[in-house]
Amino acid sequence: MSDAPEADRIELATSLLVQAPPGELADVLNDVRVLFDNDEELQEALTPALAKYNKDQHTLVSVPWTEVKVILCDAAEIDEGRFMDPISKKTFAIDHVDLSVSTEDDLPEDDREADRDALQTSLNAYLKSHYPNGTGAVYARDDGFHLVLVDSKYNPDNFWTGRWRSAWTWNADEGHLTGVARILVHYYEDGNVQLATEQPFDVTLPADTDAVGVVKAIRKAEGHYHEALNAKYAEMNESAFRVLRRALPLTKAKVDWNKIAKYKIGSELAGKHEP
Q1: Single pTM value for the model
Q2: Which key words are in the record (predicted)?
Q3: What is the pLDDT of residue 237?
């Protein structure tokens, strides 16, 4: 495959990387290595794809100044490859390949910090009650405050992984709260099934709504989304999935396809036994 045109190899590897399920990026990256002659070529070719993946998936990174992991996302990026940690008031550069952090610096002061911190406090309370293993941060940007959440669950022993991501923008001047929630789940026991769903939100609030009120609106919207998903899954389980289920054969036993050559199919189906 390394003989294929470079553009084709990069396009194929990129398409595979950006679709990597939660917690499985390293596996996909290892698989696409065969498309490149060496790791240096791989790193140079795929760094843009990894940067996109890390921001889209709200990848968490460890930093030396706090035990709390920091989110990589569009709202946190202040320059190409440089991100902010608004909670610790730091900025840093990131290597999107190995997620190493470098060139730490202080985040410039912002006169909206009191409002940002109030939103962060309310967001932390919401995380604690609804996403106990999740991480969230509030970013003060030119178009308003961005509230970003992420929570992942990895259960390779039972062949599944999943991630919840949501990103909200609160413009207090306009009383406008917009957001989007994304869910990605991968189940791969004896098969390969992925759930990818996205839900936009658009909420109008009084311009003087405080931090508690903003997060309360987020909690309400995301709660309704959870309920709608549960209802849809219950409906699908009783309708579409039921049609897909296969009944047992007439023998009332599953067929071991690895031993199919040893079965006496005709006599079994007829209820007869050869001597």
Answers
A1: 0.83
A2: Actin capping, Actin-binding
A3: 72
